[in-house]
Design goal:
The complex is a heterodimer of chains A (about 425) and B (about 250). Chain A has about 425 residues and is an alpha/beta fold. Chain A is about 25% helix and about 40% strand. In chain A, the strands form two sheets. A ten-stranded mixed β-sheet of chain A has the order 2-1-5-7-9-11-13-15-17-19, with helices on one face. Classes of the chains: A alpha/beta (about 425), B alpha/beta (about 250).
Chain lengths: ~425, ~250
């Protein structure tokens, strides 16, 4: 299968129409790199389950229509909803543009914020979609956490599909100073009936002895496309507790890279994905244990119903000399329909001597005994199915490391599961 | 209340109940005893509506309706309760949620409003105290990490909240120490009423020291081979089951 390719001439035009600011050199460098390497295809091992042609199509329509960024409009319902329900210090990037009112008043002295264009960093060759992001981004947000902010730091990436195909690039760089601590919320949301593609890049450097709790929520319209790369690096004795929730989205690809190059680093991350008809959610994670001792553990869970496909690919690389590494991976899936498909692939590459590594993957259906138990208590079949699927998800909701978002997540999960389990397909498979 | 006639069931190729008849009237407590594999648990599961068992013959009528026509949840709402031999652990669903959902499903069926949250909690706490259960079990996952005794108490708690018309307790005594057995028996005895029937499925006579049955039936190879009063249980305790099995086949 040969994917259609991005219209590189139009892309070049659009990049060159961007304001000639401090970011222009890196845009040009990224464009050149992208031009040379292009987008990944199904022939690339890391991309063999995820066909990027929908985003190519949306991007080309957007580029050919002039590649205009949506004018920053009024604050949207989606933004109001999120800001109104979760108490945090919020930064908002709407359609790729940093909202000017964002973080006007930082109450806590523990956070410093600036734009990437204030102090542009030289372009570092990234991955194709990160290059595309660097070429097209208008600006980005740089957040430095120097102390212990009382409230969580929230980053809301909100897009609205306009009258044409829309494309938004967002970039956030976070630095957590040594010994600092923070709770982070990264919230992706979109609305609108038209096609939309969002491409995000988030990098975070966590200093020695720092402690970060990070929750990612993706609740895009199920018509929309999102790709995102999250690159995290931990310092000596740093701790990261992270959880990702993919609760919406049409075509979603998350790449999470975690670099452990200092001894004593400790990362635990979980993920939950819920998919129904027409959705495709792909989670690729990679942990590099470069020195020991260091620990990583991850558990992803998925609930799939209808004709949909999910991918979980968890890679852990224990580099030579990284003795004392402890790496755990788990992926569990609940398939409520025969049409749902999961590609689950744990990958361990071990080049060190003294390591503890484990992985486990399960794909299953609802437990019939538990189902009968609930029905024997008077719950009708659909209610019992909802309760059991909810229970499967609830564990991961409870593990959200930032307590301020737990209720919001629980609410979306509940609504989404109610939608997913209303389908007649479930009745088919269980009767 | 419950009228079983010549009931035959199978699971896969195995024939389990082979023409069982039993009549239970309201207010009565029946004990069903018998050796392992005689079909005791099958009977309990079939009355509750487990779909793995195929009914190949006979009838089951419950308060005048054909019980076999009803889905498990409909049976529950009509007042049938099965206390499981192996209560299922459901991590992630808290006990209070299940209790409330169960009570409300029944109330809705009866045309009543949902239970008032305050009243519900008050009642649950009372019933838990009666069973010697710590109220914190309300907020734990259903049977999650419960000991054997805690699981059985939790079954009786559900029964006490649902106030069934017909309760079937499947080996509720198995795996209980003496204190737990007494607490469970006290819970069951508190629910004895002229309007309610109880079927105790048990392997041992021990439970019947604490819950006195009106009738005792012995099940062997899928049939009731002998019925009597509580003295039959004592006789079984002394003589075992073999003499009955021989009597049945001989």
């Amino acid at each position: 299968m040969k994917p259609s390719s991005l219209d590189i001439d139009r892309l070049r035009d659009v990049v060159r129409q961007l304001p000639n600011d401090a970011l222009m050199p890196s845009r040009e460098a990224a464009l050149a790199h992208f031009d040379e390497h292009g987008l990944p295809t199904l022939r690339d091992e890391d991309w063999k389950y995820t066909d990027l042609s929908p985003l190519v199509d949306i991007s080309n329509r957007w580029l050919r229509a002039g590649g205009q960024q949506q004018a920053p409009g009024d604050r949207r319902d989606a933004v109001e909803r999120v800001l109104g329900s979760i108490d945090a210090t919020w930064f908002v990037i709407a359609d790729g543009t940093i909202e000017p009112w964002t973080a006007r008043a930082l109450e806590s002295g523990a956070i410093e914020v600036s734009r990437l264009s204030d102090a542009p960093a030289p372009f570092v060759t990234g991955r194709p979609l990160a290059d595309l992001n660097a070429a097209l981004r208008h600006d980005g947000l740089r957040i430095r956490i120097t102390g212990h902010p009382e409230k969580p730091v929230g980053i809301l990436l909100a897009d609205r599909a306009g009258t044409n195909a829309g494309v938004a690039q967002s970039c956030v760089e976070i630095e957590v100073a040594p010994g600092a601590s923070a709770e982070l919320i990264e919230y992706h949301v979109s609305e609108g009936d038209e096609d939309h593609y969002a491409n995000s890049v988030l990098t975070m450097g966590i200093g020695d002895d720092a402690d970060v709790k990070h929750v990612r929520i993706q609740n895009r319209s199920i018509r929309h496309v999102q790709t995102g790369r999250t690159s995290l690096a931990l310092g000596r004795n740093a701790t990261l507790r992270m959880a990702s929730y993919d609760l919406g989205g049409g075509l979603i690809r998350n790449d999470i890279d975690i670099d452990l190059s200092q001894p004593g680093a400790n990362v635990a991350f979980d993920g939950l994905y819920l998919a129904g008809d027409g959705q495709h959610i792909d989670n690729h994670t990679r942990v590099d244990h470069r020195v020991g001792p260091s620990t990583s553990s991850q558990e992803y869970r998925g609930i799939l119903n209808g004709k949909c496909r999910c991918v979980w690919n968890g890679k852990a690389i224990v580099h030579k000399g990284a003795d004392g590494t402890d790496a755990k991976q788990a992926n569990h899936n609940l398939l409520l329909s025969e049409k749902a498909e999961i590609d689950a692939k744990p990958e361990l590459e071990i080049y060190a001597e003294d390591v503890k590594c484990s992985h486990g993957t399960t794909v299953g259906q609802l437990d019939e005994t538990a189902l009968f138990y609930l029905r024997s208590r008077g719950l009708d079949k659909n209610h019992a199915i909802r309760v059991l699927t909810h229970a499967f998800a609830a564990d991961l909701v409870r593990r959200a490391p930032v307590s301020a978002v737990m209720e919001a997540i629980a609410e979306i999960v509940e609504t989404r599961l109610a939608e997913l389990t209303e389908s007649d397909l479930i009745a088919d498979i269980l009767s | 209340m419950l009228e079983i006639k010549d009931l035959k069931t199978r699971i896969g190729d195995a024939e389990i109940l082979r023409g069982l008849s039993l009549s239970v009237k309201k207010g009565e407590v029946h004990a069903i005893m018998g050796p392992n594999g005689s079909g005791k648990s099958t009977l309990a599961q079939v009355i509750a509506g487990h779909e793995d068992y195929e009914v190949t013959g006979g009838t089951v009528r419950y308060n005048g309706q054909d019980l076999l026509e009803l889905a498990p949840e409909e049976r529950a709402r009509e007042g049938i309760f099965l206390g499981f031999q192996y209560p299922v652990e459901i991590p992630g669903v808290n006990n209070a949620y299940l209790l409330k959902a169960a009570v409300n499903a029944k109330r809705k069926h009866q045309g009543l409003d949902e239970v008032d949250a305050f009243e519900f909690l008050k009642l649950a706490r009372e019933r838990m105290a009666m069973l010697g259960m710590d109220p914190k079990f309300l907020n734990r996952g259903v049977n999650e990490g419960f000991s054997g005794g805690e699981k059985k108490r939790n079954e009786i708690l559900q029964m006490a909240m649902l106030e069934p018309r017909l309760a079937i307790l499947d080996e509720t005594d198995s795996g209980l120490d003496i204190d737990a057995l007494k607490a469970v028996a006290a819970g069951v005895n508190a629910l004895r009423s002229p309007e309610r029937a109880i079927i105790l499925v048990t392997h041992y006579q021990r439970l019947l020291d604490y819950i006195e049955p009106d009738y005792v039936h012995v099940l062997s190879q899928g049939k009731i081979v002998r019925s009597g009063d509580k003295t039959l249980a004592l006789e079984l305790e002394e003589r075992g089951y073999d003499w009955l099995r021989e009597a049945a086949t001989g």
